[in-house]
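Regression report. Comparing outputs from two consecutive submissions.

Submission 1:
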Amino acid sequence: MKTVDKALKVLDQFSLEKTEIGLSELARMAELDKAATRRLLVALISHGFIEQSAETKKYRLGQGFLRLARVREATVPMAAAAQEVADWLSEEVKETVHISVPAGSCMATLAHRLPHKGNVINISPGEQLFYHATAAGFAYMAFATDQTLTRVLGLKRTSVTAKTPTAKADILALIKQTRRDGYARSRNTFEDGVASVAMPFFLGQPDPAGTISIAVPASNMDDARRAELLPFLKQGIARMEQSLTGHITA
């Protein structure tokens, strides 16, 4: 594994649930030895991408990411556009909406919106949305290039719930179904009691720039409800692409 790949794997372990991580735990999570992990952390600290807490001695993400995030957002203001689309779509369908982008070993939430009602699906913005366990991931894989799909299929897969598909043959069959349907669906594969539909959006590149998903309590998702949601999901995709490219999706 190349040094850059190892460094990114270390960074990928941080989340809203794991904001600070000790050396031993971080090495275990990244599947690296402690000496290599320490060397990577020292290099990342020198560039401001990692900090070490003076009190706990644990490591956390540094402020170096803030500058790059500002540059990215100034170049392609995707987050603001995504939030507008998520707000609109959630208001229309009265369900949870999340917009995700590829982030190495998983999809990451870019924007989300919960509806104003009692029984809703909650979203943790920092949670890793595994490609093989989510509708967002399948929507991305199904419409990605062969090269990207090969890379994603090479990632380690673990079961998140009893329904999570992990066998390559099962995943390929679901990808085939997603391509045929034009959208991805999931039920209880990432979280028990949750069903989702998702579609990819494109910004002029061969691979999808991200996906838009609608998450519904599984007990409320049947063929009729899915049929109601899909036209709105398509409109959300069109709004996202038009907002970022200026082009109206046919």
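Submission 2:
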Amino acid sequence: MAEYRSVKIEAGRGGWGGPLVITPTEDKPLIYSVTGGGIHPVAAKIAELTGGEAFDGFKSSAKFEKIACAVIDCGGTARVGVYPMKKVPTVDIYPTSPAGPLMMFIKEDVFVSGVGPDQIRPA
């Protein structure tokens, strides 16, 4: 059985939302990186500090119910709202605010943006 720890993630410069406290569990171990370039450094740091499993969401897929948080690189259309709509804590590396057709689901308690490695620390 893995030992999981919590991290606190705050909005970076020009960002919005949060802070989020992320704690993976046995049921939700995945730090889901959906940035198109493998495991993003933000996802890698969250996984390292929490004991969660960094997962490349472009190479493979997982059920929403398995995701502790999703790390995205979306400027305001689809991904920016899909994960919050499914109640998956969402960490956007871009400094975006609620926008797009799913903006009604983007709330401060499930979304934070403008995040770089410096905005992640043990909780």
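Expected: both submissions complete independently.
Actual: both completed, but the second showed a warning that disappeared on reload.
Relevant detail on submission 2: The longest strand covers residues 67-72.
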